[in-house]
Amino acid sequence: MRSLKGAAARGLGTSAVLAAALALPLSFAPAAGAATADRTDDRLSAGESLKPSESVKSDNGQYKLIQQAQGNLVLYGPGGNALWSSPASGSPAYATMQREGNLVIYNALNKPLWSTNTAGNAGAYLTVQDDGNLVIYSADNRFLWSRHAYVGSLPSGHTLKAGQWVQSENGQYQLVMQKEGNLVLYTKDHKARWTTPTADAPGAKATMQKEGNLVIYSSSGKGVWTSPTAGNPGAYLAVQDEGNVVIYSKDDKPLWSPKQTG
Predict the structure, then answer these.
(1) Which residues are in coiled coils (predicted)?
(2) Which of 4, 93, 125, 164 could form a disulfide with 71 if both were Cys (CB 3.0 to 4.6 A apart)?
(3) Cβ neighbours of residue 194 under 8 Å, at least 6 residues apart?
């Protein structure tokens, strides 16, 4: 039985460009009705936006989330070290915590560039925590997304880097991109149910490609494993409440699921 809604599981197009800051056009403006974030607070509430160079910081002041002029949203830690970055477009952009629950980066023409894929959670908010985590919570404080984890699915065009994971909505299963290169499905008690044969690729990442296949790339960018699902643009990966890993087409038809143990 499916535990995901397809429309909520699909991602927006992304482009991983980290360029030098660009000058802000005079015509630039956030979407109508969006408020400017209170930069003395640790959160971006529903309906609030970050314009280029605006930021939200943790209560302890150690971590700061900055909307960069070139389009990417970056979390900085102590000493100014970049801990996380959204994909960027190479053009001026702003970030909005939308009222329906999505954190979305828009360019100056109000075209969406990237999303956390958390729509359907009206009143959700983003917070920069004192431990350095960047988290989206629902209005009733349920975990929806973080810089380390996705809940329910890995959308088309999104990537799991080493140390990141997708967890089932009930929190019982996690698909973890491990530092040695394996992508592993774990139960809550840390029992492995499935793994890719990629342990000899330290620093690898897993990308749900826009053409439909899940690919693990080595740190040098070489493909070392792939699912047999190419030719299905917009497909996404789901980690379901019953413990299945499934790749679905954009219209929610199951395409592939690995054979699991346990």
Answers:
(1) none
(2) 93
(3) 184, 185, 245, 258, 259, 260, 261
